[in-house]
Specification:
This protein has an eight-stranded mixed beta sheet with strand order 8-9-7-10-6-11-12-13, with helices on both faces. The chain has a five-stranded parallel beta sheet with strand order 2-1-3-4-5, sandwiched between helices. It has two domains: 134 residues, Response regulator (Rossmann fold); 245 residues, P-loop containing nucleotide triphosphate hydrolases (Rossmann fold), CATH 3.40.50. The longest helix has 18 residues. With 401 residues, it is an alpha/beta fold.
Length: 401
C-alpha cells in the first residue's frame, strides 16, 4: 500500500508538476513540490520523503551535486531517487543516466504509468493499481503481473561468441522451462548479431521500436509484433540491420521498452556484445544476472578485469556477475585458477572446446544442441542454464537491492 508514503517532485517546469502531482495524489501518495534544486534539497531534508522524483534540468545547482548532497546526508541517504528526464541530447541523457539514480525514465506523457509502477515497486515491492477506470481486465492483470527476469550477455572483447551463447542459452532455457515465455533482445550496435544466427529477416527491430512512444510500443503491440522463432523457441527483438539505421536509434526510450518486455515475458535475454554504451549501463545495473563471456587469452582477461572493476564501481554486486569461459574460440590461454585470482571471482561456467561446430550450427540457423544433439556443448549449456535458473529463483543474484 502507498498510504502515508511521501514523494517530492523537483522540476522547474510548472506545467509538468501540475500534471504529475495530481496523478500521484490520486494514487494515494502525499506529494510535495519544488521548482529548483536548492528548494528541493530544503524540502527533502525537512520532509524526508520516501521517494524523490527530479527532472535533472534545474540551473541553480548541478544534478550531480544535488544527488551527492542527498546521498551523503543521513536524512536522505536511503531515499529512492528517480529521474523523470526531459533531456533529449544523447550526451546529456548519458550524463544523467550515469548519476546515482535508483531509476531513470525519459519524460513523456506515456511514461507516467511506468513511473507510478516504478515508484510503487521501489517503496513497497507491489505494483500500483491502475488509475484509469477504462483499463481492460487484461491490462489490469498485466499491471499486477510479476516482472520477468533479465539476463544480460556481454563481453570485454570481440570474438568471444557472446551472441551465439545468448541465442543458444535462450533455446536451452526454453527446454528447461517450456512453460515460460522468453524474448531475446539484440542491443548490439551498429549491427545486430542475433537475427543472422537464427535466420530471421525483416519485421520490427531495435531501431524502429526505439522510435515509438510507450503507448505505441505497448505490451499488446510488442506481444503481437515480435516474431516467434520456431527453431529456437523464443521471441526476438532483432538488432539494427546496418550502421546507417543504427544512428537513428532513440536511446532515451530503450530502457522504457525493456521494462515493457519484462512485463510480458518470463525471461528477457539481452545481448549487448562488447559495448558498454550509453544505453547499456542502466540495463546492466538493473539486470537479475550479468553473464560476461571470456576466453582465457591475456588480452581478453585484462579487458574483462577492467569491465568488472567498472561495474563494481557502479554498485554491481559480484553475486550478480557470472563469468563464462567459452573455449569454443580456442584452447590456448592462461590457467583458470590464475584467471580466477586476477578477476577476484570464481568462474564456474565453462563451455568446452569444439572447434568450428558453433559456426556450423550458426550457418545452419539452428541451436547447436539441436544441430548436434550428441555434442558435449549441449550438456554443458544445459548444466549452466539449470544452475542459473536455480540461482535466480533462489534470489541469490539481486543486483538492485
Amino acid at each position: 500500500m502507498v498510504s502515508g508514503k511521501r514523494i517530492l517532485l523537483v522540476d522547474p517546469d510548472i506545467p509538468s508538476i501540475n500534471y504529475i502531482a495530481p496523478i500521484f495524489k490520486n494514487a494515494g501518495y502525499t506529494v510535495e513540490v519544488a521548482n529548483s534544486g536548492k528548494e528541493g534539497l530544503v524540502c527533502a531534508w525537512r520532509d524526508r520523503p520516501h521517494a524523490i522524483i527530479i527532472d535533472p534540468v534545474f540551473s541553480d545547482i548541478a544534478p550531480k551535486e544535488f544527488l551527492l548532497k542527498l546521498r551523503r546526508d543521513n536524512r536522505t541517504s536511503k531515499r529512492k531517487i528517480i529521474a523523470l528526464s526531459s533531456l533529449t541530447k544523447p550526451d546529456q541523457i548519458q550524463d544523467a543516466i550515469n548519476l546515482d539514480f535508483d531509476y531513470y525514465l525519459p519524460k513523456e506523457k506515456d511514461a507516467i504509468p511506468a513511473l507510478l509502477d516504478v515508484v510503487d515497486k521501489l517503496l513497497t515491492g507491489k505494483p500500483v493499481k491502475p488509475l484509469d477506470p477504462d483499463l481492460s481486465d487484461s491490462q489490469a492483470m498485466r499491471a499486477a503481473k510479476e516482472e520477468g527476469k533479465t539476463i544480460v550477455f556481454l563481453s570485454a572483447k570481440g570474438g568471444t561468441g557472446t551472441s551465439s551463447i545468448c541465442a543458444n542459452m535462450g533455446y536451452m532455457l526454453h527446454l528447461h522451462h517450456p512453460e515460460k515465455k522468453i524474448v531475446v533482445a539484440d542491443l548490439v550496435l551498429p549491427i545486430g548479431s542475433i537475427a543472422p544466427i537464427v535466420g530471421y529477416e525483416g519485421g520490427p527491430n531495435l531501431v524502429n521500436v526505439s522510435k515509438m512512444s510507450g503507448a505505441e510500443a505497448s505490451p499488446e503491440y510488442l506481444n503481437e509484433a515480435l516474431p516467434y522463432i520456431e527453431d529456437w523457441n523464443f521471441h526476438l527483438l532483432a538488432g539494427s540491420p546496418n550502421p546507417t539505421q543504427a544512428s537513428e536509434t532513440d536511446i532515451s526510450r530503450i530502457p522504457l521498452h525493456i521494462n515493457t518486455l519484462k512485463k510480458i515475458n518470463d525471461y528477457v535475454l539481452i545481448d549487448l556484445g562488447r559495448s558498454l554504451s550509453r544505453i547499456s549501463l542502466p540495463i546492466i545495473t538493473s539486470a537479475d544476472l550479468i553473464i560476461i563471456i571470456l576466453s582465457l587469452d591475456q588480452a581478453t582477461v585484462t579487458l574483462t578485469l577492467r569491465v568488472l572493476e567498472y561495474l563494481r564501481s557502479k554498485g554491481v554486486k559480484s553475486k550478480c556477475i557470472y563469468p563464462l569461459i567459452n573455449r569454443a574460440v580456442g584452447l590456448e590461454g592462461l590457467p583458470k585458477k590464475e584467471v580466477d585470482k586476477m578477476l577476484e571471482i570464481e568462474i564456474t561456467g565453462n563451455i568446452p572446446h569444439i572447434g568450428g561446430t558453433f559456426s556450423l550450427a550458426n550457418n545452419a540457423h539452428q541451436p547447436l544442441p539441436k544441430r548436434y544433439p550428441d555434442d558435449i556443448v549441449g550438456v554443458a549449456l544445459r548444466e549452466i542454464v539449470e544452475g542459473l535458473v536455480t540461482r535466480m529463483d533462489s534470489k541469490e543474484a539481486e543486483c538492485d537491492d
